[in-house]
Amino acid sequence: MSTMYVAREPDATGFIDYPQADHAVWNTLITRQLKVIEGRACREYLDGIEKLNLPHDRIPQLSEINRVLEATTGWQVARVPALIPFQTFFELLASKRFPVATFIRSEEELDYLQEPDIFHEIFGHCPLLTNPWFAEFTHAYGKLGLAASKEQRVYLARLYWMTIEFGLMETPQGRKIYGGGILSSPKETVYSLSTAPTHQAFDPIEAMRTPYRIDILQPLYFVLPDLKRLFDLAHEDIMNMVQTATRLGLHAPRFAPKPEAA
Question: Which of 90, 97, 98, 235 could form a Cys-Cys staple with 145, CB 3.0–4.6 A?
């Protein structure tokens, strides 16, 4: 997949100078999304939002995020171009660094863009990286991916998609969102908790067998019993689950095939 976005380079001190138009987009996105996630995001995510204390009037510098992540879970963010290969992705996660592309979507693509921009990565994912359970799972996932074959990585990618990107969880206050792909999207935040999609109790092997498309609202969401389930999963034999999922094969997709480009 090619991209029209170019990640911004830092100066000698590590400072990234974004144009005012970019800060304006960040402001629109964060103020809108903070309202949408009220009552819908899980407690652990909201705790992370509080810890990060993200500015509303400007795009935060990566060093600001790093200070908080380093102090809470020992993680950091790493500046990357718009799209990175699987190998680089796993290398970063295995070394407790979360990739962040240093560009922000244009005003024309406010609601959705296919490539992960700085708003998606920082607002969607970084709050939960302050949580030890979530951070542990992400780290374990990176290490597994690094050692996995090309075929195994495809199954691991589905597990990532159904948890870190598009996961829901049960809480005493009802079903809530923890997946960063949902939490950075106004439409999906509302849709994911509605009666329109299917909700299924989380099962890692089932998650690995479930095809997905990146450019539609998800037809199915897996629901964790609680966030600690991810921490427990990090200490289970995930690669054995990949073998089982491979042997059982994929479920039929719950969506139409992607239309061919004209």
Answer: 90
CA 167 to chain CA centroid, Å, is 9
- Taking only the tens place, the pLDDT of each residue in 199-248 is 999 999 999 999 999 999 999 999 999 999 999 999 999 999 999 999 99
CB 153 within 8 A of CB 145: yes
In this structure, the strands spanning 168-171 and 220-224 are: parallel
Going by C-alpha positions, the residue among 137, 98, 161 that lies closest to residue 227 is: 137
CA-to-CA separations, 33 to 47, 102, 182, in angstroms, rounded: 16, 20, 11
In the chain, the domains with their CATH numbers are 20-248 (1.10.800.10)
| DSSP designation for 251 | P
What type of residue sits at position 157? A
Q: CA 214 to CA 253: how far, in whole Å?
A: 13
Three-state DSSP state, 150: helix
Residue 123 and residue 29 in contact, taking contact as beta carbons nearer than 8 Å: yes
Q: Strand order of the sheet with strand 174-177?
A: 174-177, 168-171, 220-224, 198-201
Model confidence, pTM: 0.96
Instruction: List phi, psi (to 5°) of 107.
Output: -65, -30
